Amino acid sequence: MTENRVCSILGIKSPIISAAMWGLTNAEMVAAISENGGLGILGPMPGQKFSGNLGEASENMRTQIQRVRTLTDKPFGVNLIPDNSGQNSGISSDLFEAYLNVMIAEKVPVALVVGSLNNKTFFQKLTDHHIKIIYRPNTADPRLIKPAEELGVDLIIATGLDEGGGLPVNDWLAGTFSIVPRFVDEATVPVIAAGGITDVRTATAAVALGAEGLYVGTRFLASDESPIPTDIKQLLVQTNVEDLMYLPDPTSETVRAVKTPSLPDVIAQIQAGELKGTGALLTGMLTGNLNTGMVIADNGISLIKEIQPIQTIMQELATPFS
Questions:
Q1: Any coiled-coil ranges, and where (predicted)?
Q2: Other beta carbons less than 10 A from residue 100's beta carbon
Q3: What is the distance of C-alpha 148 from the center of its chain?
Q4: CA angle 241, 247, 250 (to 5 degrees)
Q5: Torsion angle of the four alpha carbons 237, 168, 140, 301, in this order, in degrees rounded to the nearest 10
């Protein structure tokens, strides 16, 4: 069997990478993914701890990194969102720099870079410190592949509109299984498929289209190790794709949310400026308060049938690579 390039580059057993997912990640979930052969990623403000204080936020990231290391000796990564990323990320340039410095000091081996390619000095700094770079454009535009490769990225993610989280906005919205082969045909670095990958069938389809790895978010939220409340995990299991609503969010492009009874009121509050979309997302998914919060998911939600240990989920998703 041909050696998988994603595994070789990252030093992992199975080419499954967890989505960053902001504070929906924590050290325990990230470590479980890495310990079971994949690559766990700490998102911005992990561990459900949010602070407007730069020092507190960066030290929380350091604490989470160190906590991962007490739980596994396997590789893991940290999500970095460069300034001028083209989205309202909520990550200031100062916090971005603080996270970068913590990463370097703690010798984190992998950076998941989401957003702009404009900061060439930043990319050079990562390569100078021998940090592997996974690059995920906000919108899966094939025209970004060559510039990214010229900056030294090691892997690139092709994200289709089947994804969860903030969705791309452009005139040529493409699903995961349309955009993945396009990236595969253009790229020389390995392509990782993202969006709607939640079971062995979707994983196998992505691999058949040329993906050498998988980027998975929603499926890991419905795991034993996920830090979100149990009732929200159960909601994800009970939800089908027809229960989702695609809606504008003035603070983070667009989102795909579960149609809960209180969602119309939450949308009205966002449109009136009484709530921020990102805040509503985190409130719903971290506290379970759906009166002022929402729950988002990807289009593969119908295929999630139960809450399972990450070890079981990893075994299923890794099947096409065995």
A1: none
A2: 20
A3: 19
A4: 150
A5: 10
Domains and CATH numbers, the chain: 5-227+304-321 (3.20.20.70), 240-287 (no CATH)
Of 84, 55, 64, nearest in space to 22 by CA:
64
Measured CA to CA, the distance from residue 71 to residue 81 in angstroms comes to 26
pLDDT string in tens for the chain (322-residue length) = 468 999 999 999 999 999 999 889 999 999 999 999 999 999 998 987 777 788 888 999 999 999 999 999 999 999 998 865 444 445 678 888 899 999 999 999 999 999 889 989 999 999 999 999 999 998 899 999 999 999 999 999 999 989 988 776 666 678 899 999 999 999 999 999 999 999 999 999 999 999 999 999 999 999 999 999 999 999 999 999 999 998 765 444 578 899 999 999 988 888 888 887 777 888 899 999 999 899 999 999 999 999 999 999 999 999 999 8
